[in-house]
Amino acid sequence: MKAPKSKPLLTTVAALAGVSAPTVSKVVNGRADVSATTRLRVQAALDELGYTSPMQRRMRSGGPAMVDLVIADHDGAYSMEVLRGILDHAETVGVDIVVSSHTPNKLARVDHHDWAQRMTDSGRSGVIFVTSEMTAGQLRAFQQRDIAVLVIDPLNPPPGGYASVGATNWAGGKSATEHLLGLGHDRIAFIGGPAAAECSVARLHGYLAALAGRGIPARQPYVFDGPFSQRSGAICARQALDLENPPTAIFAASDTIALGVLEVARERGLRVPDDLSVVGFDGTPLADQTLPRLTSVAQPLQEMGRAALRAVLALSRGERLDSARTELATELIVRDSTAPLLR
Questions:
Q1: pTM for this one?
Q2: N or C: which end of the chain has fewer CB within 10 A?
Q3: CA angle centred on 22, ends 17 and 26, rounded to 5°
């Protein structure tokens, strides 16, 4: 019995056709941005070598497209809301979603060229990264193999030409701070996420703009940063409340950070909102489950997921997006954790 013939690599097909491997990838994935002459030459090489990609096999059998979803924090309420939106739209359009979780350290160690090649060989239509920190080189590994890439709320600004989806973080940060100012607070602390995280920086700038709009100078001791975690929120809240003139209100750059603030308030016997007002950001189900219920800037997280999947599927079909960056509006939801300052 003869051993089955191994499938030729894209590089082998490319060498025979006299083109690059990414060009071969475009042909086997049905992209339109290849000249007719080149397409014929590549197809002849594919036929000669007997190459059939998994994507071609699925297309011929009427099978669904497949998109990888890479989540940095698979347990977070934020990520779960985004995932719900992606799965909702995937069911509507008949797309399969493959979910994986990578910590930032793990993601940095992965051979992205090997990963991208495996995705190509598996017939993936695209990949969506959620709150990941990706370098230009890492993203290029996927682009070179003609895999559509999109990042949701990237921790670092993606290079030009890469699609991303997020919310109006600056406007949300400004509205949260203006809400607290309107309640009479002028000693307002900001507890952000990582100092270099694009979304957290935008929220910080919105906070600073709101203070400046009231003629209140920014107080450096009132600005903190760290991971988007409850533990970081607690650590920073302790530092803020230990100041000589502690804040009367805290704007946390995520609902998870706000949980840490509420934890410390309970530790110290502070009544929220009578002694300390707290605002979060994200509008996850956590905001309705805290005691007191958390005032929060709501991001349309499920719609962000749906928008991301629509965009990555359009890119996989060779379509151009109207804009590489999609921003959806935030909304301040006032609940029970904020109140007028008691003088």
A1: 0.79
A2: N
A3: 85
